[in-house]
UniProtKB/TrEMBL annotation:
Entry GO CC: cytosol
PANTHER family xrefs: GEPHYRIN, MOLYBDOPTERIN BIOSYNTHESIS PROTEIN
Pathway: Cofactor biosynthesis; molybdopterin biosynthesis
Annotated EC: 2.10.1.1
Domain MoaB/Mog intervals: 188-325
Tree of life domain: Bacteria
Biological processes, Gene Ontology terms: Mo-molybdopterin cofactor biosynthetic process
Example GO molecular function: molybdopterin molybdotransferase activity
Family to which the UniProt record says this protein belongs: Belongs to the MoeA family.
Protein's name in the database: Molybdopterin molybdenumtransferase
Keywords, comma-separated and alphabetical: Magnesium, Metal-binding, Molybdenum, Molybdenum cofactor biosynthesis, Transferase
Function: Catalyzes the insertion of molybdate into adenylated molybdopterin with the concomitant release of AMP.
Amino acid sequence: MSEMISLEEARALVLSHVRPLPVETVPVLEAVGRVAAADLASDIDIAPFAHSAMDGFAVRASELAEASPESPVELDVIAEVAAGDVFEGVIGAGQCVRIMTGAPLPADADAVVKYEVVNAVSGDGKPGSRVAFRAPADARANVREAGEEARAGEVVVGRGEVVGTAGVGFLASCGITEMPTYRRPRVAVIAIGSELVAPTEVPAPGKIRNSNSYALAACAQAAGAVPVVLPIVEDTHEALAAAVRDAAASYDFVVTSGGASNGDFDFIKPVVEELGQLLMTTVNMRPGKAQTFGLVDGTPVFGLPGNPAAAYVGFEMIVRPALRKMQGFSRFERPVVKARLSTDAKKRDPRRIFLRSTLSKDEAGDYVVTPAKNQSSGLFGPIQRSNCMAILPEGLESRTAGSVVECVLLDVSEEIVL
């Protein structure tokens, strides 16, 4: 299992071995950003009654047909109806009702004229006043109709739809307070390396803090998963095998970092092969050539490199799509835009290269991308200051300033179509 495959092949391979997790029911407020696992229907018409879209006067439109600035039509204000109240009286000829936003439209009225364009002839515009209209009104003007947004029994959120913040309000208005959705995957995050210590420790000579676990856990959380950072595992086959075996038995997905190459103390590949099925070891990309993937007792196990940038890129491009599929999402790739390089980009490696970069717009409104000066795979800082990754395709062709390249957007959801 040493054949290097393309990123597309790697992503397809991993996606083919994961599936949506079982469905759970959550309160609607917890449904934000999650996928509906069933069609959801309203229990009533939305809106349940025709109501005013603004503060104004409920009228018969026909009475204002001849209204003009030179010859205004005057009507008597006989009542006032506020939101939450109902006017059940009769609006006779030459009469109107003052109405507030959201209040039910009286049965005899078919339009609302906003308050600001109506002049008081006598009184203050409230009941007992007489007001003048200087323009006709269209029938149903400024009226939100009953059932305008949904009818009782109509599906308002379909299976597979991602619920946004406005969707939560929509569901609540439809009487839906709980939503079936796919369970979030629990992800075990394991850092491998005898040189690692906890972030709370000051590293002794030869030691470094375990930052990868926290970055990868944050990536998993940003993908909608539930990460659990497990203890650091020392560089021995036995220790790693025990940690992976236990994690695979308890979690939905296992992500390790470190020990993914072919050194004397790199054990993730033989451990996965020993415990289960090894499906992938290398991907034609930089950073992150060493990408181990397999199954242990049916649980996906992904071994990322120890270098921070390599681990991050591998997670974003391959692991994140898998975690999204497990939650029922159907879009797996970040949006890509084309931009002009602000500087030359040398190409000395035939692999596909992902340059940590910053995307901006020039004075003409065109995208410009600036790769970070330091592209070392051992650094988190350039990633923190980047909002995209500029792609240099396979081959040895360098790019000069002004060349157009594709850029993967790191701060834009897969759901956004550009």
